Amino acid sequence: MNETIRTIKSRRSIRGFNDKPISKDIIEEIIECGRYAPSAMNRQLWKFVVIDNKDAINDIRDSIIDDALKANPKVKERMKSMKDPLFYNSSLIIIVLGPKDDKLAYFDCAAAAQNMMLAARSLGVGSCPIGTGRLIINKKSLVDKLKIPDDYEIVITLTFGYSDAEPKAPERKRDNIILLG
Ligand SMILES: Cc1cc2nc3c(=O)[nH]c(=O)nc-3n(C[C@H](O)[C@H](O)[C@H](O)COP(=O)(O)O)c2cc1C
User: Fold this and answer.
1) Is residue 157 in some structural domain?
2) Which end of the chain has the lower number of beta carbons within 10 A, N or C?
3) Rounded distance from Cα 68 to ligand 1 centre (Å)
4) Which ligand 1 atom lies nearest to the CA of residue 88?
5) 29-81 pLDDT, tens per residue?
């Protein structure tokens, strides 16, 4: 197995980070790998809102936690055992934005997000995509604070951090091939 395939197969969603901060160099490298994703007609329309300040991350969490509890039963479940059931004590979140109602740009954003998570994994940094992070868009004050443009939406929120956890890979479905030849 080569290094790339090992990184792809060993990346896991990490739900619990320690307090070790991520260096600016590593953050920049993760973002740079996001920029290297393919994009339709090479438009590169994604935007990345980068927050590496723990207090700011906790403020965002506190602003949306009630809505997240209502929207996602898993958040409620995790609240029983975790102090931060939303961002998992992350010290870096990157909110990937794409232009509203643009399906191709949505794909571009997903590719950029995956590039960033794989780059992180290869650098020893854990990550988890947080779909519930989209609830940020309902809080006008947060949208303003995070400088999310009116014509953009949140595609995915990514959390990053260090962790010793090596969760087992959830089993992959294999009945999803439509074999034509
Ligand atoms: C679009 C998207 C949204 C997700 N949202 C959450 C989330 O809100 N919270 C969470 O803990 N994991 C979230 N995940 C992570 C998935 O649960 C995880 O990818 C899946 O269980 C497979 O595990 P793996 O990433 O370790 O391979 C999300 C993943 C994707 C792709």
Assistant:
1) yes
2) C
3) 15
4) 11
5) 999 999 999 999 999 999 999 999 999 999 999 999 999 999 999 999 999 99
> Phi first, then psi: what are they for 109, rounded to 5°?
-65, -40
Residue among 8, 10, 13, 154 whose CB has most ligand 1 atoms within 8 A, to mutate: 13
**At which residue do the structure tokens 């309902």 appear?**
138
Secondary-structure percent of the chain, ordered helix, strand, coil, rounded to 5: 45, 15, 40
State which residues form the domain around 9: 3-161
Condensed to tens digits (0 to 9), the pLDDT of residues 104-159 reads 999 999 999 999 999 999 999 999 999 999 999 999 999 999 999 999 999 999 99
Please give the tally of structural domains in the chain: 1
Q: Tell me which residue has tokens 């509890």.
A: 69
Please tell me the distance between residue 181's alpha carbon and the centre of ligand 1 in angstroms: 33
Q: Give a yes or no: residue 179 inside a domain.
A: no
